[in-house]
């Protein structure tokens, strides 16, 4: 078995035929809303009853990638329990990626970024709306659409600075007195979160 594994590893990873760049999902043609293969299979088995709708039938067609860079970035900003922004056209957003602050403009390269505790800034002309997010992901598409999915988010102006300072002091005390790995981990998370909140308010 090990000899076979060695032979497989020795093979070239990419052949000349498969070395072409894989297209992004936004580069693919827009598919029909109906799942044709499912419908065909259903009609063969139960031709007298209309097939049920699949999740694909409820999805809007994916916008195609424009030939030129649009002037606006379309943003969807959602939480598990609410939608903060839905198809909102803005000039730019800045997200707190784990690799650092990331500015996203129209025409940005397709990217997936993990979010860390920090501020999401939404820029519309001279107006800037800021949200503090705990964590999540951002999906930047090649067609100048951006989907920001956060676990928790709150507008910066709704955060109480006194409660942030109180929480930071409490978790700092817990970290210094923690005796188990679990207590240290929980306290460290609290310190990092409240430090990010404090920086968002004062930075």
UniProtKB/TrEMBL annotation:
Family: Belongs to the ATPase epsilon chain family.
Oligomeric form and interacting partners: F-type ATPases have 2 components, CF(1) - the catalytic core - and CF(0) - the membrane proton channel. CF(1) has five subunits: alpha(3), beta(3), gamma(1), delta(1), epsilon(1). CF(0) has three main subunits: a, b and c.
InterPro entries: ATP_synth_F1_dsu/esu, ATP_synth_F1_dsu/esu_N, ATPsynth_dsu/esu_N
Listed NCBIfam families: ATP_synt_epsi
Organismal lineage: Eukaryota, Viridiplantae, Streptophyta, Embryophyta, Tracheophyta
UniProtKB keywords: ATP synthesis, CF(1), Hydrogen ion transport, Ion transport, Membrane, Mitochondrion, Mitochondrion inner membrane, Transit peptide, Transport
GO cellular component, one term: mitochondrial inner membrane
Cross-referenced HAMAP family: ATP_synth_epsil_bac (MF_00530)
Short name of any one Pfam family annotated for the protein: ATP-synt_DE_N
Source taxon at top rank: Eukaryota
Compartments (UniProt record): Mitochondrion inner membrane
Location, primary (coarse class): mitochondrion
Functional note: Mitochondrial membrane ATP synthase (F(1)F(0) ATP synthase or Complex V) produces ATP from ADP in the presence of a proton gradient across the membrane which is generated by electron transport complexes of the respiratory chain. F-type ATPases consist of two structural domains, F(1) - containing the extramembraneous catalytic core, and F(0) - containing the membrane proton channel, linked together by a central stalk and a peripheral stalk. During catalysis, ATP turnover in the catalytic domain of F(1) is coupled via a rotary mechanism of the central stalk subunits to proton translocation.
The protein's name: ATP synthase subunit delta', mitochondrial
CDD domains the record matches: F1-ATPase_delta
Cited PANTHER family: ATP SYNTHASE DELTA/EPSILON CHAIN, ATP SYNTHASE SUBUNIT DELTA, MITOCHONDRIAL
Molecular function per GO: proton-transporting ATP synthase activity, rotational mechanism
Stretches assigned to the ATP synthase F1 complex delta/epsilon subunit N-terminal domain: 74-144
């Amino acid at each position: 078995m090990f000899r076979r594994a060695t032979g497989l590893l020795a093979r070239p990873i990419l052949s000349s035929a498969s070395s072409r760049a894989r297209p992004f999902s936004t580069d693919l043609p827009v598919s029909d809303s109906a799942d044709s293969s499912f419908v065909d299979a259903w009609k063969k088995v139960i031709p007298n009853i209309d097939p049920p709708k699949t999740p694909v039938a409820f999805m809007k067609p994916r916008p195609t990638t424009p030939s030129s860079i649009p002037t606006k970035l379309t943003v969807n900003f959602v939480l598990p329990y609410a939608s903060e922004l839905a198809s909102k056209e803005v000039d730019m957003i800045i997200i707190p990626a784990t690799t650092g602050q990331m500015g996203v403009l129209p025409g940005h390269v397709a990217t997936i970024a993990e979010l860390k505790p920090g501020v999401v800034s939404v820029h519309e002309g001279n107006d800037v709306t800021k949200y503090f997010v705990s964590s999540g992901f951002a999906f930047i598409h090649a067609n100048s659409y951006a989907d920001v999915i956060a676990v928790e988010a709150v507008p910066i102006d709704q955060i109480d600075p006194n409660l942030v300072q109180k929480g930071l002091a409490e978790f700092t005390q817990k970290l210094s007195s923690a005796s188990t790995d679990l207590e240290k981990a929980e306290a460290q998370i609290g310190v990092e979160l409240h430090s990010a909140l404090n920086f968002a308010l004062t930075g």
